[in-house]
């Protein structure tokens, strides 16, 4: 049985603030979003720092029963190291049809 598609989520990771530098050197952070079986990512930030900017649109299909999107920031270096992660609940987005604003992910 095929899951019922509710719509398409458009997420735009804008920037990171005060990221932890786990490598001790330059890091090239990118954002990875995971919703259900879908996994998409931004390009690595051109600003190699703890204050990266992405401002890239990512589109994910939303299916019935998918209420949480995993958000992770990785370093695009040799080890693809995890810098930080969190979960963004989609209840409000699904109820209102849209949600525009800043969402902080804290460790």
Write the layout of secondary structure elements.
Blueprint: E1 5-11, E2 29-35, E3 38-41, E4 58-63, E5 68-75, E6 82-89, H1 91-96
Antiparallel strand pairs: 1-4, 2-3, 2-5, 5-6
3D architecture notes:
Helices cover 6% and strands 37% of the residues. The mean pLDDT is 85. The strands form two sheets. A four-stranded antiparallel β-sheet has the order 3-2-5-6. Strands 1-4 form a two-stranded antiparallel ribbon. The protein is mostly beta strands and 107 residues long. The chain is built from one helix and six strands. The protein has one helix spanning 91-96; strands at residues 5-11, 29-35, 38-41, 58-63, 68-75, 82-89.
Q: Name the helicity range.
A: under 10%
Shape summary: elongated
Strand residues, percent: 35-45%
Cα(first) to Cα(last) distance is: 37 Å
Overall average pLDDT = 85
Largest sheet descriptor: 4 strands, antiparallel
Radius of gyration: 15 Å
User: What is the chain-wise order of helices and strands?
Assistant: EEEEEEH
Low-confidence sequence ranges: none
What oligomerization state is this entry in? Answer: single chain
Number of helices: 1
Helix/strand/pairing class, anyone? mainly beta
Largest beta sheet: strand ordering: 3-2-5-6
Number of strands: 6
Give short descriptive properties of this protein:
mainly beta; 107 residues; 6 strands; elongated; four-stranded antiparallel beta sheet; two-stranded antiparallel ribbon
């Amino acid at each position: 049985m095929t899951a019922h598609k509710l719509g398409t989520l458009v997420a735009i990771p804008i920037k990171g603030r005060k990221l932890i530098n786990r490598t001790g050197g330059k890091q090239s952070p990118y954002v990875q979003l995971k919703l259900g079986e879908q996994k998409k990512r931004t390009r690595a930030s051109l600003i190699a720092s703890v204050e990266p900017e992405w401002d890239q649109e990512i589109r994910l299909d939303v299916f019935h029963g998918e209420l949480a999107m995993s958000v992770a920031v990785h370093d695009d270096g040799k080890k693809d190291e995890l810098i930080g992660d969190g979960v963004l609940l989609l209840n409000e987005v699904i109820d209102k049809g849209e949600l525009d604003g800043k969402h902080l992910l804290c460790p």
